[in-house]
Amino acid sequence: MARLTSIAIIVLIGVLLPCAAWAGWTVTALPPDNTGDIAFGVSDGRQVGQFDAYPIPQLHAALWSGIAHALTDLHPAGAETSYAFGVSKGQQAGYVIGPITGGQYHAGVWYGSAESWVDLNPVGADYSGALAVYDGVQAGLINGPRTNGQSHAAIWGGIASSCEDLHPNGMSYSSLTGLSADQQVGIVQGPSTDGECHAGLWSGRADGWVDLHPSTGTDRSSQALAVSQGQQVGYLDTWGAGRHAVLWTGTAESWVDLYPGDTHDSEAWGVSNGWQVGYISGESTGYSQHASLWHGTADSWTDLHALLPEGYESSLATAVEANDQEVWVVGVGSLRTEYSHNSTALLWHYVVPEPSGVLALGLGVPALAVAMLRRRNGAVTPQ
Questions:
Q1: What pTM value is reported for the model?
Q2: Domain residue spans in the chain?
């Protein structure tokens, strides 16, 4: 993804796009006005990611509250670089590197401020990273003498000593990238996977993992990136047929291909309440990445990139939070400027529109699904 300058504006799509199809949608470009900005997580009205702390050549972990000028810099004193990947119930998870960590990447958790950062790197680990958080539990990986120099999937409960190793027996590599109330997802690699990466599903134990990698005849490798309410999302790499966004429901056999027919590549990065987000690229997108939204099938695909103002050449949706009345999506857009391409952290927001009133609220997500499908099928299309 090319780097672009953030424009701290709120765009009302109904104004920019002359079509009522997008009523209820807004897009916010999150601050600051620098390069290298991206949002990775969303929950409870808060968003996390990173921003370029220009003119200081550093990337800083960021916490936003959904409006263009509400940025909290999470970068702790003594760090050179920091990243925040997940947010849940007042906690933010990521990792930090700098003098404060002895020059190694250390998993960490924040509680809304730079000063609140807690180092999660356990005894016996040289480095670690937290890539997700849910309800007080952080998930990621550790590596060091305690893991015999291998990267191991790990979870924490808010302090370094709580670290629990979820590495499956016999594997040479594992990492967690997402978690929910009772499941964790990520990647495994080892002899039983023929040295390829396979999407994995855990239920809080190293010996209880499930290999989600589908057998298709052209499959090569796979990765699971997020999990919510029994659904897992990620992607499948194939031999000669591109990369496919995938949805699972707990087993390899349950996989659903979210890859729209004319695309070259696609990935699903986030899932919530039956909605999935990620990107596609192919002939219909000019082979640029377009942020995308699905509702369980390839046919439900909706191009979120179409909501962006002119000048955005590519985009990616990284996470989603949805309930019966609203959908929040975060990610990044690549914006062309006069001299360069720069990245902008983005927040898409959908509200079931009035005057549908009680009927719309009662229909909730199914009503949104119908609206999305109508747009996808050409009943209403932005011009």
A1: 0.86
A2: 1-59+258-383
